[in-house]
Each structure stands twice: as C-alpha cells, then as structure tokens.
Design brief:
- The protein has about 160 residues and is mainly alpha-helical.
- The protein has one domain (about 1-150).
- The chain has eight helices and no strands.
- It has helices spanning about 1-35, 35-50, 50-60, 60-80, 85-110, 125-130, 135-150, 160-165.
- Pfam families: DUF417.
Length: about 160
Amino acid sequence: MGTFHTTADRVQGTAAVTLRYGLVLNLMVIGRLKFEDYEVDNIRPLLVSSPPFSRLTRMFGERKIARIIGVSEILIGGLIAARPLAPKASALGSLAATAMFATTLSFLVTTPEAWHQRRKEPKLSPAGQFLIKDVVLLGAALFTAAEALRKVRRPGGSAAHRDRG
C-alpha cells in the first residue's frame, strides 16, 4: 500500500510541475505573439465583439490593446513561474490568470464568429475551438493558485503545518 501512495505522490508532484510550467509556457508564448500583426488580426473579432474590450479598442487601438494583453500575459506567466522563490506572488499570478481565462471564455458568448451560424444545433467554429482550450487553462490556473497558496507561510503556523501540500 505504501508504494502505491509513494507512486501516486510522485505522479501528482510531476503533474503539478507540468501544469504550472505548461501554463507559464502558454502564457509567455501567447503573450509574445500579441506583438505580431497577424495575432492582432486573429484577436480582432474577439476584441470588437466584447463590450469592455470594444470600448478599450476604440480608445487605444487594436495594436496597443494587443500589446497590453501580451505584456499582461508575460507578466502573469513570470509571476506563476516564481513559485519556488515567491509563493505569494505565484498565487497572485495564478489568480490573475484565472480572471484572464474567465474573461476569454466570455468571448464564447460575445463573439458571433465562435459558433457556426447556419447549424441546427450549436457547433463551435475554429474561433470557438481556439477559445474552448481556456477551460483547461482556467483549471490549471486554479490548481496552481491553490498549490502556491498552500506554500505561503502562515504567521504563527507550525513548521509541520506550513510544509504540508
């Protein structure tokens, strides 16, 4: 029975690291792409269909909004990656990613291009398929937030309590 739990703990530890740094890699790579003109073109339908983003886009322009989003994604990825040195900062980054992915998932509702329009039942278009992956990234962000919060040292907590999880 002990070997099974040890193996399960190792798999879970590997899964946590894979989720964390897979999330970091996604955020940093996708954030970097926001500085490319073709990515500005790719996200245009999402921005102009979203009430808050359409206003921001009119105020600042598509390119600037894309770059602000890109810098935010890179910064959030860096915060999440800091978990070994700064678990509080990492938890903050993961919570920011949670908000970001909840926002991008809202584009499934606000973006007409996310759905095939001439179907009897709802079917995701390529744009919708691009967005639906954010459900998994949202889950990864929530998991990494919880994992980082467990590592935050609580004032007055015992060493055994602080080291669990």
